[in-house]
Amino acid sequence: MTDMKTRPGEPRSTGSDQLSIGALVDRLLKGGMPLRFTAYDGSSAGPEDSPVGLHLANERGLRYLLTAPGDLGLARAYVAGDLQISGTHPGNPYPAISALKEHTHFEMPPPAELLRMLRHVGLSNLVPPPPPPQEMMPRWRRLMEGVRHSMTRDAEAIHHHYDVSNRFYELVLGPSMTYTCACFPSETATLEEAQFFKYDLVARKLGLQAGQRLLDVGCGWGGMVRHAAKEYGVKAIGVTLSEQQAEWGQARIRSEGLEDLAEIRFMDYRDVPEGEFDAISSIGLTEHIGIKNYPAYFTALRDKLKDHGRLLNHCITRADNRSDGGAGAFIDRYVFPDGELTGSGRIISTMQDLGLEVRHEENLREHYAMTLAGWCRNLEDNWDECVAEVGEGTARVWGLYMAGSQVGFEINEIQLHQVLAVKPDASGRADFPLRPTWLS
What we know:
- The chain has 2 domains: 21-126, no CATH class; 154-422, Rossmann fold.
- It is built from 17 helices and 11 strands.
- The chain has helices at 21-28, 59-67, 71-79, 94-100, 111-121, 139-142, 151-162, 166-173, 191-205, 223-232, 243-255, 294-303, 329-335, 344-353, 365-381, 383-390, 392-410, and strands spanning 36-39, 44-45, 53-56, 83-86, 213-217, 235-240, 262-266, 277-283, 305-318, 357-363, 414-422.
- The longest helix has 19 residues, at 392-410.
- It is elongated, with a radius of gyration of 24 Å.
- The N and C termini lie far apart (74 Å).
- InterPro entries: CFA/CMAS, CMAS, MeTfrase_dom, SAM-dependent_MTases_sf.
C-alpha cells in the first residue's frame, strides 16, 4: 500500500507499509500539532523549535488517543504517564495546555482515508485499554447507580473530588485551605492575601455584624466560617458533604478558640434544621447542584433567611446562558462528576423568580486565573510530597485540571460570578443601603 498524500509541512510516513504515529496525530489533530511531538516509533511532528514538547511513550498511549479522540484520550494518556511533557513541570503543564487549547479535537478525515490510516497503525490499536484508576465511570453509567443530584449521588461526587487528602490540599491550596476563587486587591498581592480579601469582601457584601447568624453552605474546610467568627463576631455554621473537610475544619476551629462562635457540620445543606439566618454564603457549591435544581436550591436558601437577610452566591459560570451545562469528558470523569455550569443570567433570573431581590453582581474571571496560577505553582513546588501523598496519577490529574482551568478563565470560556441578593419583607422593604458599603 502506498503512502498517503500529506498536507504541506506534514511529516511523511516512515515507510511504504506503515504510517508514522507523528504523521497520524498531526493529521487528526485539529489545526495540526502546535508543539514538538515525538513518538515511540521514532517519528515526530510539529515545530522543531517549540519550547514545550510531547512524547508518546508506548502503544497503550496511542490506544488511548485513538479510542477516545479529543481531551479525554489525551488526558488518559497523560494521567497514565504514556504521554509525557517536556519543557515544563508536570505539576504545572500550563505552557503545553495554552498551546494546545485550540487543538484538542480530532478532525476526522473521509471514511476511506480514515480506514487506510488505521490499517497503517494497526487495527489492534482500536481496542481501548482500561482507563486510569482515577477515572470515574461515564455519566450514562452513573445514571444507573442513582438519580443525578440525589443526596446519595451528590455525596459520592463530593467524596470523589474533595476527600483526596487533607495534606495534599494543604500543599496545593496553601495555609488558607481555601479551594475557591480568591480576589486580588492588587496584582502584587499574595495568594493568602487575596483569599483573606475574598472572605472579607463576602462578609462586607453580606453586611455582617457582631451577634448575627451566618450559614455557609458547601463550606469546605471552613475558611468563611472562621473568618466571619474571628473578624466580625458572627455566630457561623458551615455544612459540607466531605467528612474529611468537616474534621479538618472543626479541628482548626478548636485550635483557634472559636468554638463559641463557629461550627462545621458533616451535613447536606438540605438537612440544616435551623432557620432565620441573617446571612447565607454559598461559595463554590452551585457548580455541584445541577441547573434544573436551581429553583429548589435557592428556595431552600431563601426560606432559611429572615426578612432583610442577604444571600451571596459565588460560583463558576459560563460566558453565556445557552449551554446545557454539562462539563467536558475529562472534567466530568476526573474532576467534578455531575458538575454543571451555566451563565450568570440563569442564576440571577432564578433568584429573582423566587422573590429574592438581586442588588449586585460582579465577574471575578481574571482573579480565578490568578488563583489557579498560584495553586499550580504550589503543586510544582511541592510535587514530590504531593506525589508521595496521593500518587503521581492523581497529582497529574490536578496539574492538568488546574492549568486547563486557568486557560479557560483567561480566554473567557468560563467566568466566576458573585451575585448578592436580599430577601424583602412582605411590604417590599429590603433594608439595604443606598450605595454599596463594601466598595469604600
